Amino acid sequence: MDLVYLQLPLVFFTAAAPMASGAFIGLAIAFLTTRFSAETLRRIDRWTLLPLVILAVGVIAAVAFMNTPQSALLVIQGIDPGAFGFAVFMAVAFAVVALVYWIVAMVGRLSDGARKAFATVVAVLAVVYSVAIGAAYMMSDVPLWASIIVPLGFAGFSLASGVPLGMLMLAAARALPEARETRFGTAALVTALVGAVVSILAITVQLMNAQATVAAIFPGADAVPGAWVYLIVSIAGFVVALACMRGALSGPRSGRSAAPLGSTAGVAAMPWNSVDSAAASPAAEGNVVPDLEARYRRQAATDATKAVPYLVLGNVAVLAALVAARVLFYAMQF
């Protein structure tokens, strides 16, 4: 495990990169399923900077780690130059396209169709970028990493951790009430669930392969001491993230549908004595429904951010799951 602790910056980078890039998968799902108001889109665009900052922090940690010749040699030794070069290329390509998307969105140059198409392109690049990182490890000379399950696991990481981060951005931008009225919740949950299942499968298969390899040479020995603890922590993190997503989606919906229902739903929601007294007052006559609608919208704006704590907890849990999985992965470096 000493080698793992030495490479903790890389552990963080390989956890943060799929999570940050995968956030655009969550955004793409939101834009493909929900038509947000212009004001909501402006708030979402401001929060789109969050995954870019997380990615930048991860890259800085990795670059700082490789600043010394010994650390750089530890990273690139045994790595296939072509696979490593492709991973670097995809990192640059994703960062540039994602940054251009954010800038164009911030200046208000994206129509609804263009936004959907652009966000989808960034989401696809996010998955390819994650797979490219996994492929670089798969093509190394570490025997236990030489498996197609490694890039597949990175793709799962991108879905399982990126979608919760994208949902957190929507919640922080007070966009979840609008998204709850559409198929966004189902699509986001299914996508994150698929990613979690693939991630857990990849981690488990790698651990079983490592255990079988070690046991064949040293019967009764453990491949990685305490490995099952890391596996349980990782599985628990994915489960908690999914549960937090489900809890965040069960909140109130947008008040945009209140206007068409004004005179029926609005008044019906009031106590009858309140309606009678309001109708009896000349000053208030004709203003009951608008007042109710304004009050409902104010309450909806307050409720819109109540999902943020759930999703912060979910993102912390899934990041812990990724870090545990990556520690276990690096521990197999023998």
UniProtKB/TrEMBL annotation:
The cross-references to InterPro entries, in alphabetical order and at most eight, read: DmsC (IPR007059)
Q: Name the Pfam families for this protein.
A: DmsC (PF04976)
- The answer on whether this UniProt entry bears the keyword Transmembrane reads yes
Q: Where are the transmembrane segments?
A: 6-32, 44-66, 86-105, 117-138, 144-172, 184-207, 227-249, 307-332
Going by the entry's taxonomy, the superkingdom of the source organism is recorded as Bacteria
Print the keywords alphabetically: Membrane, Transmembrane, Transmembrane helix
**What does the record give under GO molecular function?**
dimethyl sulfoxide reductase activity
Per the UniProt entry, what are the Gene Ontology biological process annotations, in alphabetical order?
anaerobic electron transport chain
Gene Ontology CC terms = dimethyl sulfoxide reductase complex; plasma membrane
Protein's recorded name: DMSO reductase anchor subunit
Q: Which organism is it from?
A: Gordonibacter pamelaeae 7-10-1-b
